[in-house]
Design a protein that fits this description.
One of its GO terms (biological process) is defense response to virus. By secondary structure, the protein is α+β, with helices and mostly antiparallel strands. Helix content is 51%, strand content 12%. The chain is built from 15 helices and 8 strands. The protein is globular and about 70 Å long.
């Protein structure tokens, strides 16, 4: 049966029932009519439901994030949980789904002669309305009116906004044909391929130029552009990292990262959080006062969590995690 015939006898009432079954406004005490009216009203003016945020990048520069308001975020989160999480992804997609981890992504590329890292330029901004509808909400699964409405609720000005709870999962679906094709092509050549959002990694024993050419050709056909400035070819004689994890012989956190983190934790415990932040002249935390100190401790916990996710049995950082949690409890006790 051809896909266009699948919903041949689907009526407007069927579409309405399907939309209600998705529970996109779950938790709201609304009538069915009000839910449907709200979904269409929001979808017709999504630009009114976003705020623009500027997030500093680690390597310099600013990342523009379009963050949905509470109403649209609720809808998009329910689209993610009630619809998108049930759709099949390529095993090469190493991010934004249950069970995915940066450690597992990096571990695939351990002990290889060559590690090639490629990046897609303006990844989310290049994913268009039609791409989203074709790959995430197409007529195989949804009547056209329903698919169009869901696509409208997930897009902003005909592209995929980076700040939406549903965008990452949608991006994996959009990239599924690329992932499957590249995986097959690479397997024939004993090359390991994985993709973590817009970061693609290839490892094995191969000529980097051939892989780059193949990737560029497929991305161009899809409407994407390879970010040449972020292309890296790493051999065994250099430090090979994948998503911030060293993979030369085994997965490990870079020594410099561990050393700096240990030092920050030591100084916080010895001299106090406020004094340590002051010695760093870190205005981002200093200007917030006590709230900044709590925020700094939370950032340390995040970094410790990263180390332990890569090396779960690290006793020093396990003890450090408990120490930082104790410091946090002291702040919470003062606040109460």
């Amino acid at each position: 049966m051809h896909e266009p015939d699948l919903w041949k006898y689907c009526t407007a009432e069927h579409c309405r029932e399907m939309l209600l079954s998705f529970r996109l406004l779950e938790g709201e005490e609304w009538t069915d009519d009000k839910v449907i009216s709200c979904l269409y009203a929001v979808s017709n003016h999504t630009e009114k439901h976003y705020n623009r945020l500027r997030i500093p990048k680690k390597g310099g520069g600013v990342r523009q994030i379009q963050a949905p308001d509470l109403l649209l975020k609720t809808i998009q989160r329910n689209i993610l949980h009630h619809i998108l999480e049930g759709l099949e992804l390529s095993p090469c997609a190493a991010a934004y789904h249950r069970g995915a981890s940066i450690r597992d992504n990096a571990a695939r590329h351990t002990g290889k002669n060559v590690v090639l890292k490629l990046d897609i330029k303006d990844f989310f901004g290049t994913i268009t309305f039609s791409m989203v509808q074709q790959r995430a909400f197409n007529s195989r699964y949804f009547p056209v009116p329903v698919g169009t409405l869901l696509t409208s609720l997930c897009c902003l000005r005909d592209t995929l906004p980076q700040g939406s709870p549903a965008s990452a999962a949608i991006s994996n679906l959009v990239m599924k044909p690329f992932d499957e094709y590249m995986d097959g092509w690479c397997r024939e050549r004993d090359i390991v391929y994985s993709r973590y959002c817009d970061d693609m990694t290839f490892s094995g024993d191969f000529a980097a130029a051939e892989v780059i050419g193949k990737v560029k050709g497929f991305l161009d056909a899809m409407g994407f552009e390879l970010n040449r400035s972020k292309t890296k070819v790493l051999t065994r004689h250099t430090r090979q990292t994948v998503t911030g994890i060293v993979v030369n012989d085994r997965v490990s956190v870079p020594a410099a990262y561990r050393r700096a983190l240990r030092q920050d934790i030591y100084y916080c415990r010895k001299f106090g959080v406020r004094e340590h932040i002051r010695s760093r002249s870190d205005k981002k935390y200093l200007e917030l006062g006590e709230a900044g100190e709590v925020k700094y401790l939370m950032s340390l916990l995040g970094k410790i969590g990263f180390v332990l996710s890569v090396t779960p049995g690290d006793v020093w950082f396990m003890e450090a995690e408990e120490a930082v949690k104790t410091l946090l409890k002291e702040y919470q006790g003062q606040a109460s």
